[in-house]
Amino acid sequence: MIIIPARLNSSRFENKILVDILGLPMFIRTAKQVSSLDKVVIATDSQKVIDIAQKHGFDAVLTSSSHQSGTDRINEAANILNLDEDEIIINVQADEPFIEKEVVQEVISRTQKMQNEENTLITSCYKEVSSELADDPNLVKVILDCNELAIYFSRAKIPYNRDHSEDVKYFGHLGIYGFTKKSLNKFCSLTPSIHENIEKLEQLRAIDNGFKIAMTKVNSKSFGIDTQKDLERALEIFG
């Protein structure tokens, strides 16, 4: 199941998930992008969002307005829906209206392969980015071990290229996450961690608590829309 967390309010871009994207509200455009892969459910804190979702043929679940993250929101939705412990749940952000379905399928496939690994809580994906893009703190970077398990995520440019080598590769993290219902519950039961609070990256909670995040490399031109400027750039590229 794909669950899209759709919180109405956004500090940087008010009501952004309702913004028109080529004739559809942003979160509906996102849902339609991935609806051929699996059942899609919208998890939201707004009755208005539920009404719009249902109008467009999508199921929606009303969740608490107090959640601090989309992961907590989809966890509540998964519990409300009483999903099986082994159900694979993919978290696709509502502000990814141009996400390629092939990218989400890669995360689904990686999650299926890793679902019996007790110490792996999450799967996600990354793409190679330029050194210039890696300078942007809004683009989260990830470094990996030889098994494509995440070592660390940061808003800083990692790894640090001390010798200014041209061979250094930088990997940008895409905020699509795969869980089983069991691993999602486990992750949300963990206390927010030191590095999570410093970087404001919730996935670091898993690493700080000794769990693994399995990554998969993808090709993607998509990016999350956090600001009006992002929206303008996305429409220029994809519209």
Which keywords apply here?
two-stranded antiparallel ribbon; 239 residues; single chain; alpha/beta; 9 helices; globular; seven-stranded mixed sheet
For the record, give the distance between the C-alpha atoms at the N and C termini, rounded to a whole number: 28 Å
With strands numbered from the N-terminus, the spatial order across the biggest sheet is: 5-4-1-6-10-7-11
Shape: globular
Radius of gyration: 17 Å
Largest sheet: 7 strands, mixed
Q: Multimeric state of these chains?
A: single chain
Residues in helices, as a percent range: 25-40%
Task: Provide an overview of this structure.
With 239 residues, the chain is of the alpha/beta class. 33% of the residues lie in helices and 24% in strands. It has helices at 26-34, 47-55, 70-80, 101-114, 131-134, 181-189, 194-199, 204-208, 228-238, and strands at residues 2-6, 20-21, 24-25, 40-44, 59-62, 88-91, 120-129, 141-144, 150-154, 170-180, 212-217. It has a 7-stranded mixed β-sheet with strand order 5-4-1-6-10-7-11, with helices on both faces. Strands 2-3 form a two-stranded antiparallel sheet. Strands 8-9 form a two-stranded antiparallel ribbon. The mean pLDDT is 94.
Write the layout of secondary structure elements.
Blueprint: E1 2-6, E2 20-21, E3 24-25, H1 26-34, E4 40-44, H2 47-55, E5 59-62, H3 70-80, E6 88-91, H4 101-114, E7 120-129, H5 131-134, E8 141-144, E9 150-154, E10 170-180, H6 181-189, H7 194-199, H8 204-208, E11 212-217, H9 228-238
Parallel strand pairs: 1-4, 1-6, 4-5, 7-11
Antiparallel strand pairs: 2-3, 6-10, 7-10, 8-9
